[in-house]
Write a structure and sequence with these properties.
The chain has about 290 residues and is an alpha+beta fold. The strands form three sheets. Strands 1-2-3-4-5-8-9 form a seven-stranded mixed β-sheet. It starts with a strand and ends with a strand. The chain binds zinc ion (2 copies). One zinc ion (ZN) binds next to loops.
């Protein structure tokens, strides 16, 4: 599989896919939505839904190459993690092989950004070596927001499910963690923006270079159908009303700025533009 790559000014963004799943009943993610309600939005077919209204979802990381830096955003589910969700439990994905095929050895990653600390955004930070969870990206600073870290420390929070113990604590113990503000300027055109609601300390990442701009969503938006239905809550949204307000605010900003929008869980063609349509939006993927 040739990795998908996009240019933003002088920077390059690469998608490294862990897994894409198609034909998912939408109620699994969006309890308030039926397949027939999704099927009305025929612009989603075939990249993001099938004609019956079943949806596609990806788990992927983005790698940003910025002036010699290599920044990995949201390192997916990982291998061998014990999770309650059957499709995330004790998996054996060829993710590091795909990362290497895309040109990135783990030791070459210098920064890991986490939009939030759900199990599907932090897994590859550690690998099981001799019965011990050890850092994968040994030369990287791993960035966390204080609120998200506090949320993740409570292992009983939904979507956390052992993540702190096997994927975060080993990074803290190794001295590879930095706590950063939710609006941190990361340099080289990279800037965090608070996008709370899905989780308390959720952030998204703006990327700017040579007059061009891109936005990596994280989970403030899970699927392009939420451009048309921004009130549609995802099952994991911690504060659904706050998540709705965040979706509207950032979709409006993405449309106003003409940003290249990279949907963290968008399948097949995850990069495109958000365009205004009535009092909501539509996602137009790049060809
Ligand atoms: Zn999430
Ligand atoms: Zn997610």
């Amino acid at each position: 599989m040739t990795p998908q790559r996009w240019k933003v000014g002088e920077l390059t963004i690469t998608s490294v896919v862990e897994e894409q799943t198609d034909h998912i009943p939408p109620q699994l993610l969006f309890p308030a939505a039926s397949a027939s309600e999704i099927a009305v939005h025929d612009w989603l077919v075939p990249d993001f839904a099938d004609a019956d209204g079943k949806i596609s979802m990806r788990v992927q990381a983005f790698v940003i190459e910025a002036r010699g830096r290599r920044v990995l955003v949201d390192p997916c589910v990982g291998n061998g993690k014990k999770r309650a969700m059957p499709f995330w439990n004790e998996r054996t994905f060829p993710f590091l092989e795909r990362l290497a095929d895309a040109g990135f050895e783990p030791g070459a990653i210098d920064t890991v950004v986490h939009t939030h600390l759900h199990a599907d955004h932090v897994g590859w930070d550690t690998r099981l070596v001799g019965g011990e969870w050890l850092p994968t990206f040994v030369n990287a600073r791993h960035l966390y927001t204080a609120r998200e870290l506090a949320y993740c420390r409570k292992e009983t929070n939904p979507g956390i499910d052992g993540v702190f113990a096997d994927s975060v604590a080993p990074i803290l113990d190794a001295g590879l963690a930095d706590i950063v503000p939710e609006d941190a300027n990361l340099g080289d055109g990279l800037r965090l923006e608070p996008s709370t609601g899905h989780t308390p300390g959720h952030v998204s990442l703006w990327i700017e270079s040579a007059g061009e701009v891109a936005l990596i969503s994280g989970d403030f938006l899970h699927h392009p159908v939420q451009c048309a239905l921004p009130s549609l809550a995802e099952i994991g949204d911690h504060d659904a009303d706050l998540a709705r307000a965040t979706r509207r605010r950032l979709l409006a900003r993405a449309a106003e700025t003409g940003a290249l929008f990279l949907g963290t869980h968008f399948g097949t063609r995850p990069a495109g533009r958000v365009v205004a349509r009535g009092d909501a939006w539509r996602f137009v993927p790049l060809a």
